[in-house]
Amino acid sequence: MARIGYARVSTTDQDLETQINKLKAEGCEVVRSEKVSGASRDGRNELATVLDFLRPGDELVVTRLDRLGRSTRDVLNLIHECEQKGAVLTVLDPHVSTRGEMGQLVLTVLGMVAQMERRFIKERQREGIEKAKAAGVYQGSKPRIDRATICEMHAEGVGATAIAKAVGCSRMQVYRVLRASPAG
């Protein structure tokens, strides 16, 4: 029976150390961590590794439920996957586990709260952007692709693969830019 810790932060400038230290202090022999959004499971390779590694009697430990996921459905699916493997999930703050029926109920409610919190964050972000746009302050994100260079290279007869390599994007992005351009 192993205690496996999972730590996650959303952005690369956030620190994982506090979570990792708490998990180790709780007796987790293995701690996997990653810096990726919890909005979905996409790109969460360490979580996938932990789930693959779980065996009957093991315990997956997270510091808070929102470290596991921001969607109630996703959290419930993760709990179900743990149960299917004969493992339990323990959340340290607040301390609750899937060992008993009450723990399952509390985790479901906490999952709903995490999802609601994510909606509130997105709503505040949207309101802030709208306010900044109205004040003429919002610039939007920087363009990731040099559209002018793509169009110029295409006009010179350079193929999509060569353009993609030169600009540092995918061929599909090159095709999208060309379709959206007036000359497209």
From TrEMBL:
The protein's name in its UniProt record: DNA invertase Pin-like site-specific DNA recombinase
This protein's UniProt keywords: DNA integration, DNA recombination, DNA-binding
UniProt record similarity statement: Belongs to the site-specific recombinase resolvase family.
**Ranges where the Resolvase/invertase-type recombinase catalytic domain occurs:** 2-136
This protein's source sits in the domain of life called Bacteria
Organism, by scientific name, is Aminobacter ciceronei
Q: Write out the catalytic residues in the record.
A: S10
SUPFAM superfamilies from the entry? Homeodomain-like, Resolvase-like
